[in-house]
Each structure stands twice: as structure tokens, then as C-alpha cells.
């Protein structure tokens, strides 16, 4: 078992807190020293009280799911002796009412595009299986109720990459 944490800091300064006219911008700090500007989403709290240039919790949630999946996929591919040259994804989360009628991130769709090289290339079926296994192992996906879909995009770098699955 391991513990994971972060630090958050928000300061009111001279802002009109009681009048609900305060910035939602804050800082996230992680154990390696990385600091990221964070804010509420402008879809939830209008600008200028939110900062569209900062990471919002919804984006961070989608990114955490995609990052966890990526790391598991790379590990699985390496164990299976498939050389991954690149992995790109543009995950998309959908905020909607869940079965309890509450706003929630109800679906996150990953669209990974992986390029391989070497004499041993995975078939599209093997790529799909590695994505399935990565999803099953992902700590973040195993921690949430959100439906997480994986729709791999095939390009050059898989055996028989012209095959549609």
C-alpha cells in the first residue's frame, strides 16, 4: 500500500468572497515539485472567476485516466516484446447526469494511437487485447464509476494495419 498526495493553495487576497466574486484559480503542487495552475472550469464558473488557461478538475480527471492507461499499455507492450515508438491520445470526457441525477463525468473515451517498430509487430487484435489489459490494470479506472472506453486508432506500425476491427 502507498499513499499519494498533493498540495493545494488558494488565497482570497482582496477579493469579494462573500459576494461570490472571487477567483477560483489556485495552485496544485506535486511531490516532485511541479506546480500547476488550476481553476474551476469556465463551463461551470464563468470567466473572470475561473481561469480558462488553468487546468480544471474535469480535465485533470480525464488526463489521469488517460495517463494511467498509457503507463499500463507501455508496460504490457514491453513485457510482450513489442517496441513502442510513440503513443498519442486525445481523451474526451462527457459531463452529464448520472443514474442518480447528479452531474458527473459519465464517460471518458480514450483514443490512443500507438506506433510500433521492429521485426515483431503486434496485430490489431493484439493491440486491442493490450488496451483491454491496460484498462483492467489501471488503478484510476478501477477507482471510478465512470465508464471508460478505449477506441484505439490504427496507423502504420502494426502488423496488418490495413485490417479494420
TrEMBL record:
Classification via Gene3D superfamilies: 3.30.300.20
InterPro entries documented for this protein: KH_dom-like_a/b, OsmC/Ohr_fam, OsmC/Ohrsf, OsmC_Ohr_Peroxiredoxin
Full protein name: OsmC family protein
Amino acid at each position: 500500500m502507498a499513499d499519494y498526495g498533493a498540495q493545494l493553495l488558494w488565497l482570497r487576497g482582496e477579493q469579494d468572497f462573500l459576494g461570490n466574486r472571487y477567483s477560483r484559480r489556485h495552485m496544485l503542487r506535486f511531490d516532485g515539485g511541479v506546480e500547476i495552475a488550476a481553476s474551476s472550469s469556465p463551463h461551470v464558473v464563468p470567466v473572470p472567476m475561473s481561469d480558462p488557461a488553468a487546468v480544471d478538475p474535469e480535465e485533470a480527471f480525464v488526463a489521469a485516466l488517460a495517463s494511467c492507461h498509457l503507463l499500463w499499455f507501455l508496460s504490457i507492450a514491453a513485457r510482450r516484446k513489442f517496441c513502442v515508438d510513440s503513443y498519442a491520445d486525445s481523451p474526451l470526457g462527457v459531463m452529464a447526469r448520472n443514474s442518480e441525477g447528479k452531474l458527473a463525468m459519465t464517460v471518458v473515451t480514450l483514443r490512443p494511437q500507438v506506433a510500433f517498430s521492429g521485426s515483431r509487430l503486434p496485430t490489431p487484435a493484439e493491440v486491442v487485447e493490450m488496451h483491454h489489459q491496460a484498462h483492467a490494470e489501471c488503478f484510476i479506472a478501477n477507482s471510478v464509476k465512470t465508464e471508460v472506453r478505449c477506441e484505439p486508432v490504427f496507423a502504420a506500425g502494426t502488423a496488418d494495419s490495413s485490417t479494420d476491427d
